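Colleagues,

For the teaching module next term, I've prepared a clean inverse folding example: a structure given as tokens, and then the sequence designed for it. I'd like students to try predicting residues themselves before seeing the answer, so please don't circulate the second half yet.
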């Protein structure tokens, strides 16, 4: 009888140890540790994919001619630089024979199209409106618009109002939209 009780007692003790200690540890702390290991492995994989993509894009960027990058940065700068643009427009007006006055800077419209395939306020391109007045002859105004047209900076003349006079000097009011990379 003694020979049967000891194995039954060992079996009951093994079942009790399994359900009392091993199973809760296996399903609790060990399972959460395994889940965190899987999550960490996924994060490591994503990080290595990110680093590989970053290196690939950096090598492609380094393959671009620096003069082309400089021209692109001038065409679509990464900041608004209102003051620099106003100074450039003033210098262009002076070379053209116009006198600029009443320059006003305001944010671009919240909705509408940029003409670049995205709506203003969405996407990577932002805009700023410049309203300005100029005084000069029609020929000087044509030279000014030609200079704006040939500008290396992305901008649009949005609105134009010409006030006549008895002399050959006119007053021009215009709205210019500047674009910049966000």
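(Answer key — instructors only)
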């Amino acid at each position: 009888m003694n020979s049967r009780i000891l194995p039954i007692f060992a079996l009951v003790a093994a079942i009790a140890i399994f359900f009392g200690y091993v199973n809760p540890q296996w399903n609790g702390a060990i399972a959460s540790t395994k889940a965190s290991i899987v999550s960490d492995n996924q994060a490591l994989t994503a990080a290595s994919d990110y680093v590989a993509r970053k290196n690939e894009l950096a090598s492609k960027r380094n393959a671009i001619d620096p003069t082309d990058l400089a021209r692109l940065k001038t065409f679509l700068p990464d900041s608004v630089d209102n003051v620099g643009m106003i100074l450039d427009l003033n210098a262009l007006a002076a070379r053209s024979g116009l006198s600029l006055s009443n320059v006003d800077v305001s944010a671009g419209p919240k909705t509408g199209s940029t003409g670049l395939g995205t709506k203003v306020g969405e996407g990577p391109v932002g805009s700023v409106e410049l309203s300005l007045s100029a005084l000069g002859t029609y020929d000087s105004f044509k030279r000014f618009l030609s200079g704006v047209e040939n500008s290396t900076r992305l901008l649009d003349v949005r609105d134009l109002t010409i006030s006549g006079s008895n002399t050959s000097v006119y007053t021009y009011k215009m709205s210019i939209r500047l674009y910049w990379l966000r």
